[in-house]
Amino acid sequence: MASYRLDKVREMLLRELTDIVPRLRDPRIGFVTIMDVEVTRDMRRATMYISVVGDDDAKQEATEALEKALGYIRREIAKRITLRHVPEFAVVYDDTSERAARVTSLLERVALECPPAPLEEAETGTTE
User: Fold this and answer.
1) 70 touches 46 (CB < 8 A)
2) Got the DSSP string for 42-93?
3) Do residues 92 and 49 lie in contact, with contact meaning Cβ atoms separated by under 8 Å?
4) Taking the model in full, what pTM does it have?
């Protein structure tokens, strides 16, 4: 039962964060996507995993801007979701999509450089 409650709270937080973050007026936030939210068992802390379009400086600036806005984000969550304790948030940059794109490009490059060997015809065991 506890895991069901955690999943439900995680989904609600994810939905609300994806609505709140794009509305922030800080220009450093730019193209931020909330990838996931992880909530501790006691629901006192939550980790917000983000992805940012741009170079390393843009990622760093967006992360810092979100960390500065965590008080506002927490107040907005408190207004929107009825929880006994509104969790304290942490912001973590999630590079999963970048790693997936890199692996895909490496696989495509290998496929172009090393075409598959032609399939040999299986021996049927019959003589002609």
Assistant:
1) no
2) TSSEEEEEEEESS-HHHHHHHHHHHHHTHHHHHHHHHHHS--SSPPEEEEEE
3) yes
4) 0.73
d(CA 12, CA 5): 11
Give residue-wise pLDDT tens across range 14-47.
999 999 999 999 888 878 889 999 999 998 999 9
| Count of domains forming the chain | 1
CA 7 to chain centre: 16
List the CATH number of the domain containing 17: 3.30.300.20
| Calpha distance 70→90 (Å, rounded) | 8
